[in-house]
UniProtKB/TrEMBL annotation:
GO terms for molecular function: phosphorelay response regulator activity; transcription cis-regulatory region binding. The modification 4-aspartylphosphate is found at D51. It comes from the Bacteria. PROSITE patterns: OMPR_PHOB (PS51755), RESPONSE_REGULATORY (PS50110). Residues 124-218 form the OmpR/PhoB-type domain. GO terms for biological process: regulation of DNA-templated transcription. InterPro entries: CheY-like_superfamily, OmpR/PhoB-type_DNA-bd, Sig_transdc_resp-reg_receiver, WalR-like, WH-like_DNA-bd_sf. Keywords: DNA-binding, Phosphoprotein, Transcription, Transcription regulation, Two-component regulatory system. Residues 2-116 form the Response regulatory domain. This is XRE family transcriptional regulator. Pfam families: Response_reg, Trans_reg_C. Residues 124-218 bind DNA. The keyword Transmembrane does not apply.
Length: 224
């Protein structure tokens, strides 16, 4: 999942970004409302973490702009504004969740996992497509009868394929789901992660469609 963090406090933003990347999210950060609107117009995000007290344009105006543009991206507000009336107004304007500062980063990650389940159309804690199951809380994966723990980027790769519901995903889209703006991406990075995932779960977990991209595969069948 690719997340846009809209936060003007550099210390809070750095802590959130590090937690997101450790949890296998690709994360970008902007520090004001105008930059948030520009980022959203030029990139596709799976979720937005939005502060309300922003320079150049208030977070409520950013949220209003998102919804008036018809963008259904999940928006999780993280703010020091704790009045009940403010929470109600923000949720009624189109926010999906509301987190009051200071908050525990583990709670933020749990709420993002809930967003991931909704995006995948699932209610359980695991993301499932065919024979592949992913646990966002533990980064463990199961494919057929094989189970293992994945690195953050291995997990991000498989999660990107699961969330796209079996579609063929291009290299560019996989890189976008795995890496943020300031992270260097080597030319064979996707192939390396696919190789690692196949070593752990089996060569058939990811199928290559030559010249197009990659999709999830099926486990090998056993002889009767």
């Amino acid at each position: 999942m690719r997340i846009l963090v809209v936060e003007d406090d550099a210390m809070i933003a750095d802590a959130v970004l590090q937690a997101l990347r450790d949890a296998a999210y690709a994360a970008d950060r902007v520090g004001d409302g105008q930059s948030a609107m520009a980022a959203l117009s030029g990139h596709n995000y799976d979720a937005v973490l939005l502060d309300l007290g922003l320079p150049r344009k208030d977070g409520m105006d950013v949220l209003r702009h998102i919804r008036e543009a018809g963008d259904a991206v999940p928006v999780l507000v993280m703010t020091a504004r704790d009045a009940v009336a403010e929470r109600i107004a923000t949720l009624d304007l189109g926010a999906d969740d509301y987190l009051v500062k200071p908050f525990d980063v583990n709670e933020l990650l749990a709420r993002l996992r809930a967003v991931g389940r909704r995006l995948a159309g699932q209610a359980t804690s695991e993301l499932v497509h065919g024979a592949l199951s992913l646990n966002p809380g533990t980064h463990r994966a199961r494919f057929g009868e094989t189970e293992c723990e994945l690195s953050a980027r291995e997990f991000a790769l498989l999660q990107a394929l699961v969330l796209r519901r079996g579609a063929i995903v291009s290299r560019e889209n996989l890189e976008t789901a795995i890496y943020g703006w300031n992270e260097e991406v080597e030319s064979n990075a996707v192939e390396f992660l696919i190789h690692r995932a196949r070593r752990k779960l089996g060569v058939s977990v990811i199928r290559n469609v030559r010249g197009v991209g990659w999709t999830l595969g099926n486990p090998p069948t056993r002889d009767p």
